[in-house]
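Q: Structure for this?
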Amino acid sequence: MLHPDRLFPADPTTRRIARELYEAIADLPIVSPHGHTDPSWFAQNPRFEDAASLFLTPDHYVLRMLRSRGLDYDDLGVPRRDGAPVAAPRAAWKHFAAHYDLFLGTPSRLWIDHALNWGFGIEEPLNEHTADRIFDQIGERLKSDDLRPRSVLDRAGIEVIATTEFALDPLEPQAELEKLGLTQRVRTTYRPDDVCDPDRPDFAENLARLGALTDCDTRQWSGMIEAHRRRRATFRRFGATATDHGVPTAHTADLAEPDKQPLLDRVLSQNATPEDARLFRAQMLTEMAALSVEDGMVMQIHAGVRRNTDPTLMRERGPDRGADIPVPVSPVQDLAPLLTRFGTAPGFQLIFFCLDETAYARELAPMAGYWPALLLGPPWWFHDSPRGIARYLDAVVESAGFYNLAGFNDDTRALLSIPVRHDVWRRGVASFLADMVERKTLGQAQAQDIARHLSTDAARHAYKMDNA
Amino acid sequence: MLHPDRLFPADPTTRRIARELYEAIADLPIVSPHGHTDPSWFAQNPRFEDAASLFLTPDHYVLRMLRSRGLDYDDLGVPRRDGAPVAAPRAAWKHFAAHYDLFLGTPSRLWIDHALNWGFGIEEPLNEHTADRIFDQIGERLKSDDLRPRSVLDRAGIEVIATTEFALDPLEPQAELEKLGLTQRVRTTYRPDDVCDPDRPDFAENLARLGALTDCDTRQWSGMIEAHRRRRATFRRFGATATDHGVPTAHTADLAEPDKQPLLDRVLSQNATPEDARLFRAQMLTEMAALSVEDGMVMQIHAGVRRNTDPTLMRERGPDRGADIPVPVSPVQDLAPLLTRFGTAPGFQLIFFCLDETAYARELAPMAGYWPALLLGPPWWFHDSPRGIARYLDAVVESAGFYNLAGFNDDTRALLSIPVRHDVWRRGVASFLADMVERKTLGQAQAQDIARHLSTDAARHAYKMDNA
Amino acid sequence: MLHPDRLFPADPTTRRIARELYEAIADLPIVSPHGHTDPSWFAQNPRFEDAASLFLTPDHYVLRMLRSRGLDYDDLGVPRRDGAPVAAPRAAWKHFAAHYDLFLGTPSRLWIDHALNWGFGIEEPLNEHTADRIFDQIGERLKSDDLRPRSVLDRAGIEVIATTEFALDPLEPQAELEKLGLTQRVRTTYRPDDVCDPDRPDFAENLARLGALTDCDTRQWSGMIEAHRRRRATFRRFGATATDHGVPTAHTADLAEPDKQPLLDRVLSQNATPEDARLFRAQMLTEMAALSVEDGMVMQIHAGVRRNTDPTLMRERGPDRGADIPVPVSPVQDLAPLLTRFGTAPGFQLIFFCLDETAYARELAPMAGYWPALLLGPPWWFHDSPRGIARYLDAVVESAGFYNLAGFNDDTRALLSIPVRHDVWRRGVASFLADMVERKTLGQAQAQDIARHLSTDAARHAYKMDNA
């Protein structure tokens, strides 16, 4: 089911070079500095329940594709906000398996096939005939201890993994992880979207809660900044080396001091305009950069997604169900205020991700090839795929080189997909480099160094996890 | 002149796989669900006149390239609005042939070389030396019955072909086709641009004529909608399964009921603003979607072309002479009103085409991978080419899979180019799939199924022509 | 260090074809119709100083990448505006060499490796261990006469080279070149950005100086145009066949006559708005086109760069130090006024360059495939690279053909990189064509003709240097 030469270039000589490069990096540890796994998995180490809750219901990549061809989310076991019953796990799994051909050609299929094999020793293809049997096999295997979350970290060679928590998260699993001595291995990340986006209905309340948590007056600009400063310190105690910011656009702003408090007053009032909200988000990115310069946390920006484009779905089943779609980004213009201020600040590292591939060769690679602070995040989300990786390297390397890239991160909530995602990246890197070797623009030893760098070291450096 | 392995990948193993995949689909029937051939050809089955009127004067791909290097449209026999004389067919053909090297590297050359060979048995290259002889050979062959339009359908294996008529078209050829029992084979398509675009100088008059045709008061919003409802039914009687909408942008709107009549009043008045016209077009797309939900017609949107960018040409010789140029599109934002309303409506199918390839990986493939209604149209116009097809599949398959694609359509007014355009698509599909097989991400049997699907079934399903 | 098959496709058969195509064009003369070498080099034929001033300090491609990974411009010997001392050449060179791995995968490394070998016979790799020795070797070789600028022209087979001078340039080297009989070989280019951009602080003064130079009243619109007319004639005396226009966007305008003088009055006043400045630049492009129609000079537009995106750098060390970054362009919309007016004017040639690759397949190739005046400039700046060349040909040839391309130009101030840049282009062209030959869409003889055309003749024709 999994051919050892999968994803390598077709030309036999280039393939041989790719295989050699790959073999030397295949078993390197995994550094996973950005993602969305559940920290309580690692704190409490529970057993996973069944095939459907592992591979189907939490994976919006998978759900969306089934819906796109007319399948009903009820029949796939996706919970409803109104609590009405949906399909049970086995029925949902069988429905999914019967339509598994929809995933031909997609990375989801690569990941699931690989994870079924790697995690459960499944050798037969998933389809309507094998669905029941595979469901049972998975259920049986999940009873063993070596598929509990912490065992998965060990089996997969995950040296370090970062989860992502909002600013107001109570961080309870992190307190347990601290007791277990796992804070350096399972790190949190500070994602203050809950207190930086005035368009959220609970924004004012959230900001007040942040004030209460940190003993600051968050109705005052300076108090709000101090609250972030303190909350970031708490996150660092739980292993955080980085912050993350999910924003609809990459707009940043650098307001004069006297303009800040009036802006905060407006977004806390009932009369805030959309432009006020936009400006507040833009200014907060620059404020977060200022705090990063101060406290050394690496800053990540994930920009350019229109969230919840299907209001009906949002109403029925909530967010993260497959209706988030990329839109264009304009990094040169949008990041100018932040970079002008902090683009050369010593020690500051800003990792930028976007889903608009057109910005890579045109803007991001040239920018990363100039600004000391800027590193390019790996191909994200829809572009975390064999062809997405190939297009990314094609577009960025000539202008940014290899050393302005932040390596790879999997950005997933699907624990079992982590090793395969890193494997696809490493195969992609080996293939790209093999082509350069065969076309005589890189020596094989140089290629091997770069392959190793992009597999692990680049991520360690980018996220300041060198001592992990 | 036509190598059997043309367009296949260079790597010998991959080429062998591509050839095998191709051989199993090469002779499948042709389903041509969108195009611009003249329905009277099939109704009256006349003889074509000569080489120039077959290959040169009606083909704006060809004319434009000759003009771009300074050739005069008079010398190419392109009719003038002022009736002044232009070159005769033979002279025009010789002028074209003498500059045929301009087409090296372009799909036009592939199509013409193939059609000369397939239709007329021409084996020698077209150039200034052979132009006269080939003109004569074509003229001679055109006298035989097997190059009349209906014979071409048979010889090319065209199972079904759709033409495109404006809402006010008298549909006379269709009435003849009905008598001949050909309505299921030569289908019309409802393209109401003539009554949906207030920027046309004849818009108000056209809307009145639509009212007269359907016995509705089209000055009233509800009467106008009813007129469309009736006219669509007439088109369905003549085989239409689909509508088509050519729009400068993909803007859609979903106005509240009370806002509709005032908008119609404004665009029928002398005081309409450009924004009124834009909003009317946007709202009419959503209205057409509503009617499709009601009557089951498949909806097509062709968006993102700036028409007639050379006013001098327009004045001298009218539209469709080569000066239409693509512009960017923003599908996420523009289609939101329509999709929010009808994106999950049962049975509704919306096929979207654009010429802005940057929207494919960023927006359209993710959207098609979510919305049940949305299917991606094939690479259109300038991108209906070997490299355009390769870029399209590269950009869309990983996020949309193979089953959210609408297969292929040729969108041409050049009858003899239809078999070759489908052949180039099939070779492109076989090449893409062979690469996946050789790189071990798809089994050969799966690849063969997908190749067959993309050659015919995808188009049949997308256009609800399954029972054709 | 330089493999003879470098950059050719991996597939052995295709590689063989590429090599054959390349061998027939490798030694053709170099036509370099656009660039930024210093004309005094050719007039005075001095010796170059040392390795650092040849390869490091003037090359913003190189400087930027070093800065992006935290190196200090002081340590690289980049002069400061405040005159504070910076590293001496040897120290700067050693610092650069120690970080030369940053350039792996970039065209800069290709160019420098090639130039070290071609110019100085260096066979060992540049790194911290070899830096001193190579610095000495270069210094030694620079004492020989065959590395003086005019000898480099001969050794590299540079048939003709164009430099670029602003409208107010005193053209002193050109006067010397005229005495030496070199005006046809070292040509200037008219670049009137200094008198066309009201956003420059010295704009009004510059326009007055242009008036003084040409004995025209440049406060009057007609006088200003006449001043350009005369200044262009002076440039033509010194070999210029072309003008060049560096503009932030490609906006053009075609104002009515009565609106022109008031616009000039506004931009010369203290009250000009940014929109006035934009409109003036836009109108001046159309005026320059009008003068080109009149005097036959080829017009070049280089659009879509945000200059000096790091204000701190600008303040410390001035422009052209690596902080210029591309932004999107919209050629269909922006060029409409100019092309509507002059797009079909006999003899007018407009060569358009941009750094937004997304515009190539979508807008520029279709436009070049229609408008007689429009030719596509080669991949520019960040895209003058092996992958940039491959993407360019992939994107433009199918819609524009080969004969609407302006061939290659190197656009460099680095004299020794000229032969290698042309070599990379020729290898890229040979590789692209070899793939077509192997995939049977082009005959080998046709491919050879096109390879030759794109290597030299295309540039000669595009720049009207046919008789050079």
